[in-house]
Design brief:
It contains three helices and 14 strands. It has 259 residues and is mainly beta.
Amino acid sequence: MKKAAVPALLAVLLLCGCQEGAASSDPVPPPKTAQEVLEEQPVDDTHDAFLVDTGGRMGTLLVTTELVAYEEPEELLYYLHLSVWDPSAPGEPIQIQEIDWETVHYGEHQIVDVNFDGFQDFTYLFYRGIQAEGYHCMIWDEEQELFVEEPEYAAISSPVLDPETQTIYGWNRESAASDGVSTIHKWEDGELVCVRRIEVYKIDGWGGPFALTVQDRVNGELTEVFRTEFPAGSEEYFDERAKWKHLDYHGEEDNQISS
């Protein structure tokens, strides 16, 4: 009886070994996709999350934001705590930044190539009026592998990007007469600058004549290069303004202002 116990013990040990081998060979669950990681993030009145496919070496990144109240508020009540994550390695963010953005339309963002370099950036809505909208902007820097704020973008009213001409158009209407300010921005040596500003305004208040002025960027500064007036009730300024929205148009020689 004692000799028979040895084979029985061996059988038990072999069975345990087989079970351990089976357990160690269980398949490892696949890593979560970027979309799955996104769906785990809180999104509410003070938290937001979205994906940005940068188009660069880092691929698709997760951006999370949180509105945090200042302990001693002065001009701003909140600041934005922004974190950027690699969804394939979500242990720690690859970028953390605290920005003085008080967004009144929190959570409304756009994924766009703002500087036309082939890499995707994102903008954040901070103002919306009857016609005008304002956006903050974060540019993806492929060399540094992080997002960098572009403050000038926030100065463009209702920005419209034109990849063909690599320009950004802005428009801020003043009244129902469609007077107001049009701007054209371009990137020069990596800097976003206003290269033309067109303004139509009432000279003597409501019902009076209109003036149209054009400023172009000359030697690094906006300089008035054209001015004309239109009688009350005239709508000819619509056509004149439309001409100046093309940067290759510089007006008729008789109307140009000498520099």
